[in-house]
Each structure stands twice: as C-alpha cells, then as structure tokens.
Protein: PD-(D/E)XK motif protein
Organism: Arthrobacter humicola
Amino acid sequence: MTANQYSFESIWNVVHSLAVQGLAELYMHTLGPTIEAGPLMAAANPAGEFTVLVPLLGDEGFADQLGGAAIRLERTLVEGRSYASVTCVDSDLNDVFIIFVRDLVRRLPSSGPCAGVLTDHVDHWRELFAQTKSSGFLTLPQVAGLLAELLTLERILSRDPARGLAVWSGPFKSQHDFRVSGHALEVKASLAREGNRTKISGVEQLKEPEDGTLHLSLFKFLLAPEGDSLPKAIRRIKALNIDPLEFELLLLRAGYRAGFEDVYGAYALSISTEHTFDVTEPAFPRIVPGKFVQAQVPDGVEQISYVIDLAGQLNASLSQPQLDAVYMCLAEGTPHA
C-alpha cells in the first residue's frame, strides 16, 4: 500500500476546511489504502485536530490509550462501524502527524487484524512526537550543521546506485555522522569568520572503527542571500530517487520539520572553505581512549568535550581525488549495524 505525501496533505486541508465550516462529519475523506476491514479515513475538527480512522474487524479487540500530550488513540463508532481513531491533539504537530500516517500506511497489513500493529506504531511514535514538540526551531548553528551533513549525504548518494540512506547515522546521535563497515566520516560546521576550530563531543567521536578509517570534514559557512539552504538541499536529495518517507523520518529525527520550510529557507549559507582530514594521522589533534593510561578514561570522569584547532592541519587535508575515494567507500560499503 502506498500513498503520496501531497495527497495526504491535500486531503487533510480539504477535511479541515470543511471542519471549520461545521461539515466534517458529512465529508470525511478516504486516504486511499484499504485493509481487510475497509479503507482508512481522514477527519478533522474545528479545533484543528487531525484524525486517522483505521477500520476494525468485527471481533478485533482494542484498548483505548487516552494519555500523551500529542496523540490520542481510542475506539470510535462512525455510522455503526467500529474504528481505531488516532488523533493529533496538538495542531502545531499536524505536519509531523502526516508523516506518522504515511509511516503507518506502510506498516499496516493488508489482511487480518491491525489493532496490534497500530498500537505498537503509536507507542513507537510517542517519543518522537514529544521530542519534536520540545525541540522547537533549529538554531542557526544547528542549521549549518545539518546543511553540512545533507551536502555530504548528497555527494555520497550521487555515487550510490542503490541510493541507500542507512549510511547517514547522524540523526540517531551516533558516534559518527556517516558510517559503513570499516569506514566512518564525522561532519562539522562553523560560522566563524576566522579560525578553523571545532568542538568534539566525547572521547569516542574521533575514535576510528576497529580496523577501519575515520575522516573529519569541516565546512565553514557564510550567510549569503544567494547561498544554499536546507529546503534546497532536501529537494535535490529527493530528486536522487531515494525513499522519500525514510528520508523525512531521518530529517524529523535530525530536528527538521517540513512544516517550517519557509523559515528554514530564509537561512541561506554559502561554503567559504571546506577541508577533510584523515583523523588517524599521528599529528591529528584528538583525545581518544588510547591516550589514557591503560587505554581507558579514568574512573569518575563521565563526560569530556574539547575544541580542536585545525589550522596546523590544513596542508594535510585531503585532495579532491582522495575525498572522492572516501565518498565512494561510504557509497559502496555495507551500513554499520
């Protein structure tokens, strides 16, 4: 079962418009996909709440879940038919809810009961709704950091015929932003006009994979009206024929919400300089567990972050052919589990 993102959005726009006019109960819309019990339905109310109705089989058990600040799950009767009703109770998260529904459509089985799958899906998404609600807008430094990752992802995907997004591990706050078996790449961004400093979060961030390679890219950006932006980079990546829903889920985990595209489009950045380094070179400045006595962080030290100055490393940065080889390794490798 598949459904187009934009048809979902247009359906709810229509239904919400009717709801505001007090006509929603008469004009609920089907979402397109059909399970054994019938078609899924979209509805809205004058308060701006979006709802998806999943039809239930006659003997299908289902328990209400009314708790949660963003989403409500309950049994609903519509014209004598029993549905599992999933409602986004915070209209500010309607753009996230539409991605939730698209993800749900992929997971619901076409035959048999669906209540268990639906309940598990809601439980899985509750944390993501809460995280999205609390994160707010990305700051300008966060925008720069995400843009650097997207530019890197675009280069890797352009070399990967399979267009595999699993190489991008940054949205999951992993040790490295990009990783496949044997190879890893960490991406940093700076808005500073002077210097080549960047912050390192923890002693594991610049530790290479076992028997593998690790590189670090530093993008320096300047604000520029003609520059690149998150929405532009996202559109280019989608044009590479990647899985759009998987990509949107990754963006959501990275803190980006498509509903704020106009806001993020105003942050236009151009690359002033860009350098990539082999972190495993002896002269590269880093703190890793091997630097400590017995190759482990001293007892009682729970967190270490530090700043490295790469000014003395610029002459050792990778040439373009060397950088192309790094991208090819990431494009051709098997994603790290």
About this structure: The first helix runs from residue 5 to 20.
